[in-house]
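Handout, section 4.2: multi-component inputs.
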Amino acid sequence: MSNHQSPPARHRVVVIGSGFGGLFATKALRRADVDITVIDRTTHHLFQPLLYQVATGILSEGEIAPSTRMILKDQANAAVRLGDVTTIDLTERTVTSEHLGQTTVTGYDSLIVSAGAQQSYFGNDHFAEHAPGMKTIDDALELRGRILGAFEQAEVTTDPQERARLLTFVVVGAGPTGVEMAGQIAELAHRTLVGAYSNFDPRDARIVLLDAASAVLPPFGDNLGSEAAETLEKLGVEVRLGASVTDVDAGGLTVRDADGTEHRIESVCKVWSAGVAASPLGRRLAEQSGADIDRAGRVAVDEDLTLPGNPNVFVVGDMMSRDRLPGVAQVAIQGGRYAAKQIAAEVTAAAKGRPVPERTPFRYRDKGSMATICRFNAVAEIGGLEVTGFLAWIMWLAVHVVYVVGFRSRLATLLSWAWTFLGTWRGQLTNTHQQITARNAIAQLHYLERRIEDTEADVARAS
Amino acid sequence: MSNHQSPPARHRVVVIGSGFGGLFATKALRRADVDITVIDRTTHHLFQPLLYQVATGILSEGEIAPSTRMILKDQANAAVRLGDVTTIDLTERTVTSEHLGQTTVTGYDSLIVSAGAQQSYFGNDHFAEHAPGMKTIDDALELRGRILGAFEQAEVTTDPQERARLLTFVVVGAGPTGVEMAGQIAELAHRTLVGAYSNFDPRDARIVLLDAASAVLPPFGDNLGSEAAETLEKLGVEVRLGASVTDVDAGGLTVRDADGTEHRIESVCKVWSAGVAASPLGRRLAEQSGADIDRAGRVAVDEDLTLPGNPNVFVVGDMMSRDRLPGVAQVAIQGGRYAAKQIAAEVTAAAKGRPVPERTPFRYRDKGSMATICRFNAVAEIGGLEVTGFLAWIMWLAVHVVYVVGFRSRLATLLSWAWTFLGTWRGQLTNTHQQITARNAIAQLHYLERRIEDTEADVARAS
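Output:
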């Protein structure tokens, strides 16, 4: 009889990241006899596939980024901790995180690493100042400010060349995000904003979608790719394939075509959606475990999604490299749920004194891919079936309404979509001074602080 | 017969400001034979009385700040220009505005100045860094970040004293905005966030409402003021009257009580809603016209709301001083409509060759005042009638839903309110790194730039 012993400490699960992988793993563990700590540097769960709708004024940031703490507040076994993970120690089984100078060390028995990916500029990080990416709410709000700001400046300027530069929008990268951004900027210019300016016609705006690859939406296959390219061109988007960006500055970008010729596109507002790099935590996990890492910084995991030699450390979502799975929400969700299932089964077995069950390898079930091009028009690939146009768009809408995780705001979101798609109104065209200038002000601040130190050292030497 | 003459140039109306005064004046002129230019430094019409709901996560910024350009896009005689008005020249009849280094001079025949008011720190502008005001969308988003950020930091810290400081929220100023802010922070702490943190109970948060005056909501009269104070205290808000703030820093504030004793309140998150100062344009108008100006910088106007000696220059809303009218939306709306009516009547008379009609003096029709304290609870004064509790709250809701100007989003707004008031969910708790750090980063940048210039001058001298 063990009635009078003190209860054993509960199995501790640490989840790094509150994106699709982390959140769905945490929810899948809600009935498990474990204590979960979710650590993330943001306080929200970001529904990343809809970021472009925040950037183009369709949805508000709250609708696609519900508070992780609010989502999990009724889940008694889960705690949320705001912090930037600096170290994972596989030997000590601890995760160290920082928040405003406060360091916290959290011990784990099982670890689920799902820290996702960030924008990659392929070694040209200085492009970021002039062509923000689309990975965070800050990015989307800043792009909203830049896009609408370009139209506002075009209204004020009296120089036709400057106006043309302001009315040229360039989206780099023709994956789903790039296609959706280019389509929505075209809808803004050709539909929403018509009649709103006095000194120019927004329909004169030029929207360019560039990609170094030779197809739009490569993972969707040739048919859907050319269908999407055609729809974009009908919308007024200039699609340029086989075009690599070699430089970006405040006033435009330089492009090298497939035949090697370089030319410049004058454009104030640029959007970068060309590449991703896995969270730098991937590299640190690889160094400690000897796991392989691919060019995008993703960690090669075993068939149960764990780090080689560390069966208690799962890597899921965009950080994980296995079977050439793409960096999409479904891979993260299924990976997170798989990891949760293994942990729950093993904790239950241990509690009942049963042998630990052997893990069946992770199998990804492809539910298809979708991308919207404009209202009422999408492309979708489901189980080998290719769907385009209005039907694909309705499927896209249904799937996204069901998945938008701020459950209680689903109907309000649907309603605000209905207004936006049926009319020409957009409810979220607000942008503020801080949203537009913040990123550059913060970056410049770091730069100036270093310059002051240098200059003061000069003064000290000189005197 | 004048059929073959070229048409005379249309009467030009310039409207400075897109708040209640400016927007309602512009809309009232929609059928007038005039050309209107609305100049504002923001691109939105701000529904200022609901800013506190953006700051506390109930509404998104887009719901209370629809794009001015979109509101007016079907009004053929109105143009919108983004710009900061730097000069009004009453002799030349021109308005000069700047936008990103581009200067524009706009001529007018009639001018409506409705540039509103900004937060006043009564000469202590350095308080602003530590206690943001509530006048712009930027302010509200920053306060949202600071309020939620304080709870997040309280979860991370291990120092009980620091946690108490983080969980103390001080609202300075017990007018409608201060009362509403204090009430909503209390609702966040005592209702919305309950269960969301692991290391403390948000119900332990301390919410202090301070005012140097001896009553809450002074313009509402003694009865409603004490009713509001009582409701706030039941909600858990500490109401301190006769208490002046003498200093504010990052960690707290110093307060002098009515008996002259000073004491300190340790608090990380402070909100300033204590005073307003009219737009500095008021002073410049007064200098040119010899008009009087009051302590808050408001311009004393004639009985037709025009500047003495300038019957074609109307000053309306929070910038205007006349009959001790309060700085509320209704005064601005009625003033804007009055100005529009005079202009339209005179333009019509001139076109028909009739004598210009004499102006009847502006008469304000008091439609009452309202302030919400928490959900289902408000105080209202309508035509001498005092209403409190649920009934007042329903009246408040009805009036605000009707007035929220982003017409097409009214139902969506109502729906999102319904969710928020009936449940414990709030859809707009998102905050981003930039929202929280932008204001200080931008301010610090200006400071560092000046310091670098000084230091480099030192280096030049030393070498």
